[in-house]
Amino acid sequence: MTTTASRTEAERPRRADDPDLLLERAVAAVEAPDVVFALSVDGTRRVRHGGTGPAPPGGRDRLRYELGSASKPFAGLLLARLVGTGRVGYHDGAAELLDPGRRHGGVERVTLTHLITHTSGLPALPADFYPQALPRWTTDPFSGYPAHRVVAAFLRARPRHRPGTRWHYSNFGASVLGHTLAAATGTAWEELLTAEVLAPLGLRDTALRPSGAAGTDAVGHRRDGTTQLPPLDVAGFAAAGAVRATPYDMLGFLEAHLRPDTTALGPALRAVRQPLLRRGWGRREVHTLTWFQHSTEHGPVYFHCGATSGQQAFLGFCPGTGAALAAACTRRFRKSDAFVPTAYGLLLDVAGSGPTA
């Protein structure tokens, strides 16, 4: 007869707030070919993965996942880094940096901060983007719109409202930021982000384009969860959505935000946590330079979601409890999205079980 006292650790009942149990339930809640949830609490990491498809030989946790719009915190951190080292200023005009000495009446007041905080007055995408993208909207909409077209569309744009007065989410604006920083530094975007953010943080398994090597990059799927899709090609929209990373590198990025003084990017990491604007009903939605920020009983929670044609990602952290969560899956949920609520809820649950701010 087995008594309670003699049970093995695996057989003992687990508390409802046990992190391992919470991770396992989160993985089970997301029906996708590949699902990974990676948690860090005070530097202790836990990773759980599963899925409806066959597991790759190297493990789902070793694949690079497309972050989509969760790439924008990388772009914002780069901006803060360049401002901190004096190479650009938050209020520098983007048009002047891209095309010095010429007048661009519509966008002359658009600053670098406006671009990354979605307050530039620009639409979500350029007007002439849609004709070339619609025939392949669900598979590869961006590849036919290169960098020079993004820049040209910006320089002739007419913002829908005065920059800095209204919030409207814009992949267009974030992409222009990338081209502007590249122009201001004379350095290609990929090289600039790698040198100033990825390398200092030790993110060796993070990249801005597919590797082409089998078993390295996660394969996205349509919402049916079975039809495979080609790797994302963002063309001229790299700053808005090109980053792909392993769950471990995603955690490394978030852990740097929790412990900024342990890295060379400390001032920039602190800068991107500062609230900049409010929006929404009752102005309750708070935004920093790069993150959505929600107030909770455990202190502020910072997060950003991302989606490509066939993958989704979530990045979030709670400084007051030392908790960070990175999650990814290889299916694009379009209705009754289980992924984002599951990831966000898990972060709050873990934050609630730890010390408060």
Oligomer: single chain
The CATH homologous superfamily is called DD-peptidase/beta-lactamase superfamily
Provide the number of structural domains. 1
Q: Indicate the percent of residues in helices.
A: 25-40%
Structure summary, number of beta strands: 11
Distance between the termini: 46 Å
Structural class: alpha+beta
Q: How would you characterize the largest beta sheet?
A: 8 strands, antiparallel
- Write the element-wise H/E pattern from the N-terminal end onward: HEEEHHHHHHHEHEHHEEEEEEH
Note the total helix count. Answer: 12
Q: CATH class, please?
A: Alpha Beta
What is the annotated CATH architecture? 3-Layer(aba) Sandwich
Shape: globular
The share of residues in extended strands comes to: 5-15%
**Sheet with most strands: strand arrangement:** 2-1-11-10-9-8-7-6
Give the uncertain stretches in residue-range form: 1-11
Topology:
Elements: H1 19-29, E1 35-41, E2 44-50, E3 65-66, H2 72-84, H3 94-98, H4 112-116, H5 130-133, H6 147-155, H7 171-185, H8 189-198, E4 206-207, H9 238-241, E5 244-245, H10 247-258, H11 266-271, E6 277-279, E7 285-287, E8 292-294, E9 301-307, E10 312-318, E11 323-329, H12 339-352
Antiparallel strand pairs: 1-2, 1-11, 3-5, 4-5, 6-7, 7-8, 8-9, 9-10, 10-11
